[in-house]
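Sequence and structure are kept together here, with a separate record for every protein. A complete record is shown below as an example:
=====
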Amino acid sequence: MRIIERAILAAVLVVAVGMLGGIAHGAAAPDKLVGIHSARVMSQSMPWMAQEAGLFKKYNIDFNLVFISSSSIVTAALLGGDAEMTVTGGIGNVAAYVRGTTDVVFVGGIKNVMTQTIVAGGNIKRPEELKGKRIGVSRIGGNSHYFTIQALRRYGMDATKDVTFLQTGGDPETLAALMSGALEVANLTPPSDAQAIKRGYHYVIYGPDLKIPYVATAFVTKRSVIAKRPQVIGNFMRAMAETAKLMHTDRDFVYKVLGKYLRITDRSVLDSAYNAEIKVLEPRLVVKMESLQATLDELAQTDARAKKIKPQELVDSRYLDELEKSGFFDQLWRKQ
């Protein structure tokens, strides 16, 4: 009888252990998170870097990144529930907030100044010579369009009257259109601008010199997403904090990842892109209020509601505050 009882007990224990194992396995399943980015450029490559470095796995996230050109369209997709996190320029998100969609919120920054450039070939060499020309931008209403308006204004030109904009869909497409002759002038972002220079084109306006304040690349989600999934968003931000450190300290790794995703292997092109961008990428993911204010000021010219909004209203800093107060950032950057 004891033999039978022991056999039954053993069988029960096996089943129980199996059930516990299944529960534990279920609890450890990665949290799915869908993200969108609006440009295939270095400043929006952090999710690629995190994926290749195993940081999403470290923080138990199954992150799926989708490309959709233009900040405004990415914002619409976020608000429509197609994604829970975006890596994009600020203009579309700020415009949505100004129109009353206050669910949209910035939780971290990557780049707070614009680094686009205006590139051309032939005899177009000075900003004044851009008048009457066709300028390729990724999307009307996106970062490249905004930069061109601001840059031309600094040289006494009105973009609505003095140039014609042509939408291409993205930075690689703009470069291709320039090289094919479909465009006379192109707005490009690293590393596409370096590729154009390598092929004999030249800078007409070099954006990094202008230091135009703007939330050029940021992490944007919804307040309702944070309310439902605060820990998942927190883990995502930790992964991005580690990625920022990686990008600032491991140039060869960055080149390897950019080579894989952008199919660029020319070291001189990668050097040019890295040297231009790394100086303005935020090591601690700060969103600067003056950069948000600059965007609000631009929108205020056509929408008076923007004048009543403070940049702080657009930001939820809980994750960055926690990373600072907990010593996470300090410990991370001590690991040199």
